[in-house]
Amino acid sequence: MQTDGGFCAPTASRKRKFPLDDLNQDLLERVLSWLPTSVFFRLTSVCKRWKSIADSATFQLACSQIPSRDPWFFMVDPHLNQWVVFDSAERNWKTLNHPPLLQLNPHIDSIPVAAHDGLICFRNSSGHYIVCNPVTGSTRQLPPLDKPPQNQSLHAIAMNSFSTSHHSYKLVLVYGELSSLTFRIYNSSVNLWEEEIRLSRKAENPENSFQSDPDDDDETVYFLSITGNVVATNMQRSPSKQYSSVITRKDGGEEIVYFLSSSGTVVSCNLTSKLFYEYPKLLPALSEYSIDIVESKGEFLVVVLSEFLETASLRVWKFDEDTRAWRQIAAMPPAMSHEFYGKKVDINCAAAGHQILICINSGELCRYILCDLVANEWIELPQCIKEGEAKEFMSAFSFEPRIEASV
Hints:
Elements: H1 25-33, H2 37-43, H3 48-53, H4 57-64, E1 72-76, E2 82-87, E3 92-97, E4 110-116, E5 119-124, E6 129-132, E7 139-141, E8 154-162, E9 165-177, E10 180-187, E11 192-193, E12 197-198, E13 200-201, E14 222-224, E15 245-249, E16 255-260, E17 266-270, E18 275-278, E19 288-296, E20 299-308, E21 311-320, E22 325-331, H5 334-337, E23 346-352, E24 355-361, E25 366-372, E26 377-380, E27 385-386, E28 389-390, E29 395-399
Helix pairs in contact: 1-4
């Protein structure tokens, strides 16, 4: 039988093209570890030997040595009885089954809130966290916080691996008021929450400080809040993006969490120096726009859809630390973005490498755009048809489909 991966399983009726079955176990596992995840799962139906490899510890070790996988985008729709992902390599939609721990429950619904490598973190209505490998279905419910934040706003939920080991991960929570931010870290290697740590506001260098217009101080900024609060619109953000945030690790080992404040500014929390800083506003007051934040190649970027002079623009921005100013690095072609003018559009974004998936929603339309930052290409994805209907997803999370990712 010819498989999609280009290999042939041995049959009595025709000669084998490539005698994979003649390879010893170690070499066979190394060969199969380089296959795209979706292709490997299709090949496991070839024979029992290949199927058994998926659970082999040595095969999972071989998979962990593959530098990267083409990302999948986990689409958010709490009403589906199956998960839906978009495969960026094969450019198609796939379905995955819910693991038992995350079966839909009318009393304790779980929504995705963060992702890293091959794992996705869910938060349920009781405030508990569950980490899942969506490819294998393995799950772990994290221990409850011994001192849950009382009457404090939760701003960010971010995931990252430990610099010393990619087999363990951390979950970071940032909460409190902007005048008094605190963070806590869950360490998967010891299955414990570390003690909370208070952040101090970073002192601004007067020579590099951003001079804002004093007339703007009392003005209201009209935007679609990343925290789920609706401002100047009847559009509700996806609940899974309430805590939209990203985490980066600098060359020196510094870890920084970025999130959007309720006023639409970017706040950075340096977990290493224990300092936080609020970046200057990207757009002036009295502007109506939708904004989201992503991580690309170790840097944070901001995606903004705004309206000006009777048209809409969708642009990607980066903050230049040298000039202390925002710099545009990509823009959707005007003929493409003009469609969104006057539609009260909300955007929710997820990035992987140099690709950004942008979910564009309003009461009138639903689009999914894949932006390639290197080529500055903007491609609209096909509709996802399930049970004869086009599904509408409010947001997405990017992850690498890794069989070996351990919860």
